[in-house]
Amino acid sequence: MTSDSAAAATEAIVRRAGERFDANWRNVCAATDRFFAKLMVGQWLFAILIALTFSPYGWEGKVKNVHMHVWIAVLLGAIVASLPIFLARARPGWVGTRHVIAVAMMLFSGLLIHLSGGRIETHFHIFGALGILAFYRDWPVIVTATAVTGVDHLVRGIVWPESVYGILHPEWWRFLEHVFWVLFAAIGLSISCVRSLKEMRTIAERGAEIEALAEGEWRKSSVVERDALGTTA
Amino acid sequence: MAIALWVAALGIGFLALWRYEATPGARGGPPGQWPATSAIEPLQGVSTLVMFAHPQCVCTRASLAELARLKGRFEGRLAAYVVVLRPRDAGEEWDRSDLWDKAAGIPGVTVRRDVDGLEAERFGVFTSGHTLVYDGRGRLLFSGGLTAARGREGEAKSARQIAALLTTGKAERDVSPVFGCALRHGAAPISTDE
User: Fold this and answer.
1) In A44, A125, A197, B71, which residue has its Cα 20 to 30 A from A81's Cα atom?
2) Domains of chain B (ranges plus CATH)?
3) What integer is the mean pLDDT of A71-81?
């Protein structure tokens, strides 16, 4: 093999490795988009269930009406879930789809916290959502989700601290404490995403090398077979 | 385009939620002196707190949690009543909700039934969770809610106001918004701008 043909063969392996990696990651992201589309429906129904459990009716004396929280869960929950579900079906694997899903997951965290009456336990949804978003193996998605929940804590901490921290006058550093723990999870998950992609690249490269070896073997055997056929003829 | 529409719809939705949570109920007009026609007896020499409650109002659970904190802090120095609404034509068990049990479970709190909201009317109260504090001589010290928003537990400004009134006799404000269900049909919530 000449040096030119060796370089061409290496280039072909690198190109093929890139194609294998891209196709595999696209499949991972598209499958995760579809998973989130189902999760969005589940979260929407869960939000309605929470509203019906915690606050089914509003009252005026003896007269009862469906509580505002039920309408909020039905309508606002549907709005939050709508675009992620649409994009997961129309544009699975697109980078914008997973960022919209990341935003929607954090909005669902806020909505569920609200509907459960600010229960501190419902804040765990944020960490669960970050963990599931790591299925994409795409660290910028984790950054988007972290930014949304950070802005939410910052803004609500200024205009309505009681709704996010449970007390009216939190210490000035309370925002930093909440963000620190979210960042703690986000950094760990981002490192995991980077490592996971690195592994996927390695697997893609090995796959491309095996493909090239197999192709070389096939060509060699084809030449031998042709020669053998030529000799017998 | 779809993303812009989504963001706009989200903004409207969350704004509606925020407005609902932050809009208090009807403010009412409690008398400056303990009403003589009331069947509830104030305790002489100590301050008396009266909270009016709708037995089915989920928001009032948070008000009761705040009352429990306040009562624990001023044990022996604050008499407390929770007055629970029961419309005349409602069933016998209509007012015996978990809210009644929760109120009855707070040490030192007496729960009273308010048939047809007569006591609420005497005290000029329209919203569940509305709390009044009268001093030992029957003068109104505080009127308002104990929570900072609808159904939210946590340290609200009103709890600190009551604490200040009970310890020093002075507070920044002696009126707070009330978040809860209407005690009678037609008592519409007031605007947040008021």
Assistant:
1) A197
2) 30-167 (3.40.30.10)
3) 96
